[in-house]
Write a structure and sequence with these properties.
By secondary structure, the protein is an alpha/beta fold. Helices cover 40% and strands 14% of the residues.
């Protein structure tokens, strides 16, 4: 029910806000005694952020060739992280539960009590209160992080008291300058690597090929469509995706595979309902060409399905970053709230041989409002439709031109 969802969200954010006061009662853990060794790398962001980060993550072996590297990451990313070969050990953390369940939070903290690291690296620019509290509770001789993102994008820190933010910064022995607000995340991750002393230029991330069972990869040719997103504000209307799907089937002769999480499975039914209403008797030619994969794949399987697709089309969500990481050309219908940070992709080294990530956006003057002010017109549109105005101003024709 709507009221229950609202209550759960409010409770979660209240708990996140209250977490800041825990720092008053906690000590910054340091190793006790001998046997200090190894590097602890914290990256508990969501899947999309993790995939972008893989480009710079490849450098930690070069930075610390004699050290064992342990990654502390979001449980959703753990299987992929283990297959990259970048880390000697992977410790998963259920990020959402870590934010809202204090008992689970303490269990994670206590699990590190007997681990002694030489260096801890907090890699996130938008480091949240809970990320910093996690760093505080991992014993390490040296702790290094970015100078934090203070914008509304990093809402957890944005809501915190100034004195608390200062204490969270004091967890670290060194803060690496973040390079300013106008960097794309690939570039910012490269800044962190250079701050650690490695000469490195940003480029597209690369996800190694995963072993999957026979029959998982659909027969070609096909297009993957990701109509969901982490927030309804960033979701292009499903009826427009249905028009794009119909064009792909009828004009390009390709099948369409709709992908996403199990909680987004309702979008398949909506997609088919729109097609049926528009196509009527002609629907039979589409029914067998549109496939439902919502919640039916593991992340390695999803990566390989996208890798073998002729094209990816979707919102600003993990799928487009999978496409970039497996070198499949992708089209992203992109709201401009944080324009320039996660999309469009910008590289510092030559990436001419890489398939492009094409952004379809409204190109509004107010792009990047995460670092400024949302217009009154957009606020009204958001309240009325649940989407940013810039999402609704991307037309079907604009996307079809790119296809």
């Amino acid at each position: 029910m709507a009221w229950r969802d609202t209550w759960e969200k409010a409770s979660r954010w209240m708990n996140i806000w209250m977490s800041q006061f825990r720092i008053v009662f906690l000590k910054n853990r340091r190793p006790a005694g001998q046997g200090v060794n190894g590097i602890a790398v914290i990256k508990i962001d969501a899947i999309g952020d993790f995939l972008i980060w893989l480009d710079s993550a490849s450098q930690y072996r070069k930075l610390y060739p004699e050290q064992e590297i342990t990654l502390v990451c979001n449980t959703a990313c753990a299987e992929i992280a283990g297959k990259t070969g970048f880390f000697d050990a992977v410790i998963p953390v259920q990020s959402r539960r870590f934010e809202s369940d204090n008992r689970y939070k303490k269990e994670i903290w206590d699990s590190f009590r007997d681990k002694h690291y030489h260096t801890l690296l907090q890699t996130a620019y938008s480091r949240t209160i809970d990320m910093d509290l996690l760093a505080m509770n991992i014993p390490a001789e040296e702790k290094i992080a970015f100078v934090a993102d203070e914008s509304r994008v990093n809402l957890s820190r944005y809501m915190a008291l100034r004195s608390i933010r200062k204490k969270l910064d004091d967890v670290y022995d060194r803060l690496i300058p973040s390079g300013g607000e106008d960097l794309m995340e690939l570039e910012r991750n490269a800044v962190f690597i250079r701050g650690l002393g490695q000469d490195f230029q940003a480029g597209y991330p690369s996800l190694p090929q995963m072993q999957v069972q026979q029959g998982v990869i659909p027969p070609r040719p096909y297009v993957v469509i990701f109509p969901g997103a982490s927030s309804g504000k960033k979701m292009w209307p499903i009826e427009r995706y249905a028009k794009v799907g119909a064009y792909i089937v009828s004009e390009k002769g390709m099948d369409v595979y709709l992908c996403g999480g199990a909680n987004e499975a309702y979008l398949y039914r909506q997609f088919v309902d729109v097609l049926e209403a528009a196509r009527g008797r002609d629907m039979e030619r589409y029914r067998d060409r549109v496939h439902d994969l919502f919640g039916k794949t593991t992340l390695p399987e999803l990566a390989e399905i996208i890798r073998n697709a002729d094209l990816f089309v979707g919102n600003d969500t993990s799928g487009i970053h999978f496409a970039a990481a497996v070198n499949t050309r992708g089209i992203c219908i992109f709201g401009e709230f944080a324009y320039g940070r996660f999309l469009p992709y910008r590289c510092e080294r030559s990436c001419e041989d890489h398939e492009p990530v094409i952004v379809c956006s409204a190109q509004k003057d107010c792009a990047g409002c995460a670092y400024g002010t949302i217009t009154a017109e957009c606020k009204e549109h958001l309240l009325r439709t649940g989407r940013y105005q810039c999402m609704d101003e991307v037309s079907v024709e604009q996307v079809l031109r790119e296809i």
